[in-house]
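I'd like us to work through together how a protein chain folds, taking it slowly. To get us started, please write out a protein record for me. Go ahead whenever you are ready, and we will take it from there:
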Amino acid sequence: MKEAVVAALQMIADELTDRRVLRCRFCKKDGQLVVEVEGGGAWTETVYDDAGNEVRQCGIIGALPPALRRGYV
């Protein structure tokens, strides 16, 4: 799992250059790896966490492959 997260962050490294990453999390509901960042911009959007609470300024990297998700969902 750690390798998958690192690889995903490397893919969007340019997007994160000027922003402070607050945290990374894995959304069990839809299998998305989410990076929360400070600041706005086109890359950020509003998403909801597992409890239905709004989480602002998040960038969705993308769904992890089912094989990687299996142990975390």
Remarks:
- Residues 2-69 form one domain.
